[in-house]
Write a structure and sequence with these properties.
Layout: H1 3-17, H2 20-40, H3 47-70, H4 74-88, H5 97-111, H6 119-130, H7 136-146
Helix pairs in contact: 1-2, 2-4, 3-4, 5-6, 5-7, 6-7
Length: 148
């Protein structure tokens, strides 16, 4: 079952359960995917692209949570956190810190990176290998820490 098919099933189950908050988050995701499909003139997207879309939406929500908390709006921050929880069910299991560090070390060896000037290609290679299982910020931080 593709992620888009799973999304449709989740929407149906949220409707039957009368879970309005979950349904709202799922419909928003379906809408975002629909816009990308229209933009690319395609009927369906591969799972890798759907994962990328979900990651972008989660990142938007995290930024919103931070802004709402700074602005003294805890009720809106809580709503965004709830949406993050729903969206994260469509993401693959994230890499553990140890697995991510092993992946970064192996990639540094493969690319022959020797200084911080080589961070860009290393980060790009790690993200390609991680395939959506690690966020860019943690990858960047770890690569920066491990390169002299």
């Amino acid at each position: 079952m593709t992620l888009q098919e799973r999304l449709s099933q989740e929407i149906k189950s949220a409707m039957l359960a009368r879970d309005a908050d979950r349904l709202s988050a799922l419909r928003m995701l379906k809408s975002t995917i629909g816009y990308v499909q229209i933009e690319r003139k395609t009927e369906s997207l591969p799972d890798a692209e759907v994962i990328t879309i979900v990651q972008k939406e989660v990142k938007k929500r995290r930024d919103s949570v931070e802004q709402f908390e700074k602005g003294g709006r805890p009720e809106l921050a809580a709503k965004e956190k709830q949406e993050i929880t729903v969206l994260e069910t469509f993401l693959p299991q994230p890499l553990s810190p140890e697995e991510l560090e092993q992946l970064v070390r192996a990639t540094i060896q493969e690319t022959g990176a020797t200084s911080k000037k080589d961070m860009g290609p290393v980060i790009k290679a790690v993200q390609a290998k991680a395939a959506g299982r690690a966020d860019g910020k943690s990858v960047s931080t770890l690569v920066g820490k491990l390169l002299p």
